[in-house]
Amino acid sequence: MTEKIYNLIIIGSGPAGYTAAIYAARADLAPLMIEGVNRGGVAGGQLMWTTEVENFPGFPEGIQGPELMELMKKQSVRFGTEIISEDVVKVDFSSQPLKMETGDGKTYLAHSVIIATGSSAKWLGLESENKLKGFGVSACATCDGAFFRDKKVVIVGGGDAAMEEANFLTKFAKEVTVLVRKGEVEVKASSIMYQRAKKNPKIKFLYNIEVVDIADPAQKKVTSVTLKNNIDNTTSEFPTEGVFVAIGHRPNTEVFAGQLNLDRVGYIEIKDGHKTNVEGVFAAGDVHDYFYRQAITAAGAGCQAALEAQRFLAEKEHQG
Ligand code: NDP
């Protein structure tokens, strides 16, 4: 028996993956989506960890992140996307058909692949942080800043993202305290971003500071953070109503190392639209985009990648 070769396999199930699936399924490509389950045990990408989403067009009253993903999933299935709940653990893109192996040991073959595995925000790794995600703890100021109008918030990190998000948060919050684990002269952010944040009267900085706990999971809201001064090891309570973690992102590309061109940090390099260095393999969303990182831009990228895959398949058939 010959193994089935899919026209298109989509790896990943965030806004980029589902949008690619909707377009591909409507183009009669009968795509397979390998939705990925290992990032926190659920498929659906980073929006599964947010509460209210207010900036996705079409939902004037806002929508819960998990609900938005469920709707996207339904829409992709409606047009014939087949979905399996597994992680891709190995790929072989060295020749056609492209090969993918999942965690249960099965191999899937396809003429084209869209990688939409996204990126993961880095977290501090505290139990309290995990319990309060979506309840005052966030890794995305653009997404959640507006919920902190006239509140006091802290932001953890000393890179450009922390500076940019601190400035953004001052549109809403009455006070933003940036918690930097290094000293004042060792701050990682570029000078221009750092100076801009320092000039903002609503932003304060605390240096040589690490967050060791967040209160209060029992109340399902943030009331304070426990700070440790890493010079003298003293701890103190710092009242706050929100914690933004901006300590970097990690693209979910480990499985593609050695198969695709990745940049220094691990993001997939794309050219001429959404093409990777392997013919027939495309990338969409946060897995290549470290700049915009929005659900709507990922969805747009998913659409573009699906159109490119469609064209690739049509040309291939024509040549074959
Ligand atoms: P970075 O890796 O540049 O910075 C991460 C920051 O988080 C560092 O200050 C680091 O501290 C700190 N950090 C890491 N782990 C912890 C921890 N466990 N506890 C406390 N602090 C921690 O990441 P960014 O997301 O800021 O930026 C990523 C890239 O994107 C960079 O190249 C940046 O320039 C770019 N960027 C550009 C922007 C722009 O130009 N507008 C905006 C946003 C990002 P330490 O220094 O001690 O390691």
Provide a descriptive summary of the structure in words:
This protein has 320 residues and is of the alpha/beta class. The protein has 2 domains: 188 residues, 3-Layer(bba) Sandwich (FAD/NAD(P)-binding domain); 119 residues, FAD/NAD(P)-binding domain. The chain is 25% helix and 26% strand. It is built from 7 helices and 19 strands. The strands form 5 sheets. Strands 1, 2, 5, 6, 7, 8 and 19 form a 7-stranded mixed β-sheet that branches. A 5-stranded parallel β-sheet has the order 10-17-11-12-13. Helix 1 runs parallel beside helix 2, helix 1 packs parallel to helix 7 and helix 5 runs parallel beside helix 6. The radius of gyration is 21 Å and the shape is elongated. The two termini are 22 Å apart. The mean pLDDT is 94. The site of NADPH dihydro-nicotinamide-adenine-dinucleotide phosphate (NDP) has 17 residues, from helix 5.
What's the gist of this structure?
The protein is of the alpha/beta class and 320 residues long. The chain is built from 7 helices and 19 strands.
Q: What portion of the residues fall into strands of 2 or more residues? A: 25-35%
**CATH homologous superfamily descriptor of the largest domain:** FAD/NAD(P)-binding domain
CATH topology of the largest domain: FAD/NAD(P)-binding domain
Number of domains: 2
Q: Report the major sheet.
A: 7 strands, mixed
* Relative helix content: 25-40%
Tell me, what is the CATH class of the largest domain? Alpha Beta
CATH architecture verdict of the largest domain: 3-Layer(bba) Sandwich
Number of helices: 7
Mean pLDDT: 94
Structural class: alpha/beta
Which outline best applies?
Answer: elongated
Low-confidence sequence ranges: none
